[in-house]
Amino acid sequence: MTFSNAVAMRYYSDIPFTSRSGQLDQMGCLMPGGYWVEKEMFEVAWLQAMEAIDLLVPGKRYSAEELCNPALWGRLWRSEAIMLGRCIKFLVVHGLLPLIEANAGKRGKRTYALDLEALARWQARCGLVQVGLA
User: Alpha-carbon distance 90 to 11, whole Å?
Assistant: First the structure.
């Protein structure tokens, strides 16, 4: 699955984790460009982003580092930080987080912004608010 044909997923459990050939004990996801990201990195990205959602200000741009706790980010190897950034982008592109890519199509560090419409849909899907019927 590539980002160019990304399908909105409803839940974290919808991510198509597979085992890496030859290493049955390592689960992960093959990202665009052929990059392998371990499932544990997705779990860290997911948990960190979920903690950050309530603290985000609409319209402000955030890097993956800011979404994943700068103290944690500082303890990561460079390769782990890159993987964590790829996980955040995957979660955003596939609609698993109520964020938009604020600098889509740019090279380098990605930034993300809280999207209020996506937040309302996300909260309703997670059962955090009730949606009125029209």
Answer: 13
Residue 69 CB burial class (10 angstroms; 0-12, 13-18, ≥19):
middle
CA neighbor of 110 nearest in space, from 44, 59, 66, 70: 66
| Structure letter (DSSP) for residue 131 | P
Bridge-based pairing state of the strands 35-38 and 61-63 = unpaired
**Residue at 93 is within a domain:** yes
Q: 52-67 burial by CB neighbour count: b if 16+ within 10 A, else e?
A: bbeebeeeeebbbbbb
> What six digits make up the tokens of 117?
């419409």
Query: How many structural domains are present in the chain?
Result: 1
Whether residue 131 is contained in a domain is answered as: no
Residue 130 lies in a domain: no
- Structural domain span for residue 115: 3-125
pLDDT tens digits in sequence order for the chain, 134 residues long: 334 445 556 778 788 888 876 655 788 998 888 888 999 999 999 999 999 988 999 889 999 999 998 899 999 999 999 999 999 999 998 888 999 998 887 777 899 999 888 888 877 877 665 444 44
Query: Does residue 20 sit within a domain?
Result: yes
